[in-house]
Structure formats: structure tokens, C-alpha cells
Design brief:
Largest sheet: 5 strands, antiparallel
Structural class: alpha+beta
Number of helices: 9
Strand content: 25-35%
Strand order of the largest sheet: 6-7-12-10-11
Helix content: 25-40%
CATH architecture of the largest domain: 2-Layer Sandwich
Bound molecules: uridine-diphosphate-2(N-acetylglucosaminyl) butyric acid
Number of domains: 4
Radius of gyration: 21 Å
Distance between the termini: 28 Å
CATH class of the largest domain: Alpha Beta
CATH topology of the largest domain: Uridine Diphospho-n-acetylenolpyruvylglucosamine Reductase, domain 3
Number of strands: 20
């Protein structure tokens, strides 16, 4: 007999924000830590392929999954400690990211406000090192707790062990979720008491001016970020999508300069390592794909970097558009875009 929490031939279409249809042979929704151990130790599920799912907001399902999908729904958040410099705040993997951020602000522990309204769960945040408006989660992350699903043992990854980079980490590089070897159970943040608003991003400054906030509070920062996101990014519950569908490409200085001399408007963001980050959304728009559809999918009219499901899309539609956009950008600019979500 399978554990009670296991569903078979489970419909995953509501568990991925692109709303692609797919089924999992087995689905376990984990609300308590012990359920995780029960599932991974169950003899009928031994040796099966595993995939660890969070909010499904950075995921492209390419077909049915034969094996076990483990949906991390562990809830709970708390202040674990505090010293003169910082608050240490923990949240379990299944907490909704935005609700967690709002809760920290309400408690008077600022820091995460620039990451307001990012879809997904706390447990997924470190995997792609979520970032927005001049802040990456890695800057405020103390450590990650996980379980090695092969042996059922807890492990801890300090910030430096996570090998964080732009939209990347050890967990993403080693395809943790795909290999199903580890599951992140809890993330502990270090929120410094010395707080300064991060207003380096031009759009944020404009939005704060609209709010009349000269010395913005953390709440006002969050409000400004939410207003920008609501304007530019489609709400997945209304228009299914997986956020930015491509990474912003980081190219050599030579290529960036060559492109800029042909296209003076090209947005360029110098990186600490001397390379130049380009705006994939700009490249896609210039290549003619902003607001354009291919079958039931398209690139969003307010932000060309976001691939949207206009209704009834299948995985093959997403893959066809991915190819078309990559080819168009490569042909026009010689830049090879890499998709940001995980393809399962
Ligand atoms: N742009 C265009 N056309 C477009 C979209 C963008 O010309 O259709 C230009 C903008 O005018 C701007 C530049 O491209 O000059 C950058 O655009 P934006 O500020 O909107 O940010 P982004 O680089 O497109 C990144 C993140 C977002 C994050 C924003 C804000 C990536 C892959 N995406 O987008 O993250 O919210 O910055 O910090 O790094 C996500 O990862 O899902 C995500 C939404």
C-alpha cells in the first residue's frame, strides 16, 4: 500500500504557472517533515525517478513524468535569533515567497522588499538565486537546510557553499531538482539591522516619486516594486507564464561594444568581472517578437522577456516559440539566449 498522501496519475497543470498539461505517475504533497521520510523510504517507491517541485513558477513541463514528484508544502516561519547586527529569520520551503516577504516587513525586519511579488516558494528561491531591482536573495541568505533524499539525512549549506551567481547556484548547476537527490526544507535569512533603501534602479526612483516618498520606508519600497511588477509582468493566475523566460546574456566587452556601435540604444550593465550583461527583453523586442504570438503562446506585450500561455498551450508550443525567439535573436545580434526555467 502506498502512503496516503500519494496521488497517482496526478494532474500537474495547476502546479505549474505556465499551466502546461502533464501528469505525474506519483505525486506526494509534503506538509510535514515526517511525510517526506515516509515517502522516500517506502519500498513501492524505491528506485523511482524523483523530482522536487516548489511553486512551479520556473518550470516547463515537457511531458508526463514517470516517477515521483515531491511537492514541498512545508509551512512555518519564525525569528530564530537576533544579535546587535541582524535578525535571523527562517521559513520552511513551502511558504509562499511574497507572503513571507510581506510578513518580514510587517514584523519590522526589512531587507527583502525589493524581491516583493516574485512568484514561487521560499524553498525554490535559492535554486535560481531570485533577483530583482538591484537585489539578489543570496545577499541576505544565511544558510539553507536540505535533506539528502537518498539516505534521509539532513544537510546544511552555508551561504558560501551555495556557489551563488546571477540566476544560478550549486543547486541549479548540479540539477538538484532534476536528479531528485536533495530537497530544500528550510531557508534562514540574515537581515541586517542597518537598513538602507536600495533605489539604484531608475524605474524604482520614478515610482517612489509618484508615491511622494523621498526617504522611502521598507513598505514604500515594496509598494513601488509591486506597482512596477503589476504593470509590466503578467499575473500567472490571469495569464499563465513562468516569469523571465530567458536569462539576460552576459557577453564580452568586445561583443557589447560592437553591438552598441550598430545599436546605440542597447542597454548594457557592466559586471564586476568586466563582462557586460545585456537585456534579453530589449534584444527580443528588437528582433520583432514583443507582443507576437506563435500558436497559443507569445512574448508578452509589456515585457518581451516573458513567454505567456494565451490558453490551451502544450509543451511543444512553448518549445517552438523558444526556438523561434532564440533563432531570431541569434540571427539579428549573434547572441545565443539561454532559457531561464527548468525543463522537466
Ligand atoms: N526592455 C525592452 N523591451 C522589453 C523588455 C525590456 O526594451 O520588452 C529593456 C528595458 O527598457 C530596460 C532593459 O530592457 O532597458 C531591462 O528591462 P527590465 O528592467 O524590465 O528588466 P529585465 O532585465 O528584463 C530582469 C529580471 C527580472 C526582474 C527585473 C527587475 C532577468 C532574467 N530578469 O528583467 O526578473 O524582475 O530585471 O530587476 O534577470 C524573473 O527572473 O522572472 C524576473 C522577472
Amino acid at each position: 500500500m502506498l502512503p496516503e498522501i500519494i496521488q497517482t496519475a496526478a494532474d500537474l497543470s495547476a502546479l505549474n504557472t505556465l499551466a502546461l498539461p502533464a501528469r505525474a505517475e506519483f505525486l506526494a504533497t509534503i506538509h510535514q517533515y515526517d511525510q517526506l521520510l515516509e515517502v522516500i523510504r517506502h519500498p513501492d517507491l524505491a528506485g523511482r525517478r524523483r523530482f522536487v517541485l516548489g511553486g512551479g513558477s520556473n518550470l516547463v513541463l515537457t511531458g508526463d513524468f514517470s516517477g515521483l514528484v515531491i511537492q514541498m508544502a512545508l509551512k512555518g516561519r519564525e525569528l530564530v535569533s537576533e544579535d546587535e547586527q541582524a535578525w535571523y529569520v527562517a521559513a520552511n520551503a513551502g511558504e509562499n515567497w511574497h507572503e513571507f516577504v510581506q510578513w518580514t516587513l510587517a514584523q519590522g525586519w526589512p531587507g527583502l522588499e525589493n524581491l516583493s511579488l516574485i512568484p514561487g516558494t521560499v524553498g525554490a528561491a535559492p535554486i535560481q538565486n531570485i533577483g530583482a531591482y538591484g537585489l539578489e536573495v543570496s545577499e541576505l541568505l544565511d544558510h539553507v537546510e536540505a535533506v539528502d533524499l537518498q539516505v534521509g539525512r539532513r544537510i546544511r549549506f552555508d551561504n558560501k557553499d551555495c556557489v551563488f551567481d546571477y540566476r544560478s547556484s550549486l543547486f541549479k548547476q548540479e540539477n538538484w531538482h532534476l536528479s531528485g537527490r536533495y530537497a530544500i526544507t528550510r531557508v534562514i535569512f540574515r537581515l541586517p539591522k542597518l537598513w538602507r533603501a536600495r533605489t539604484g534602479y531608475g524605474e524604482v526612483v520614478t515610482e517612489l516619486a509618484k508615491l511622494g516618498a523621498r526617504n522611502p520606508t521598507p513598505q514604500q519600497m515594496s509598494q513601488a516594486i509591486c506597482a512596477i511588477r503589476e504593470r509590466k509582468l503578467p499575473d500567472p493566475s490571469q495569464i499563465p507564464n513562468a516569469g523571465s523566460f530567458f536569462q539576460n546574456p552576459v557577453v564580452s566587452q568586445e561583443l557589447a561594444e560592437a553591438l552598441a556601435s550598430a545599436h546605440p540604444q542597447l542597454p548594457r550593465y557592466p559586471q564586476p568581472n568586466g563582462r557586460i550583461k545585456l537585456a534579453a527583453g530589449w534584444l527580443i523586442e528588437q528582433a520583432g517578437w514583443k507582443g507576437r504570438n506563435l500558436g497559443p503562446v507569445g512574448m508578452y506585450e509589456q515585457q518581451a522577456l516573458v513567454l505567456v500561455n494565451r490558453g490551451g498551450a502544450k509543451s511543444r508550443d512553448v518549445q517552438a516559440l523558444t526556438r523561434a525567439v532564440r533563432e531570431a535573436v541569434l540571427a539579428r545580434f549573434g547572441v545565443n539566449l539561454q532559457p531561464e526555467p527548468v525543463f522537466l
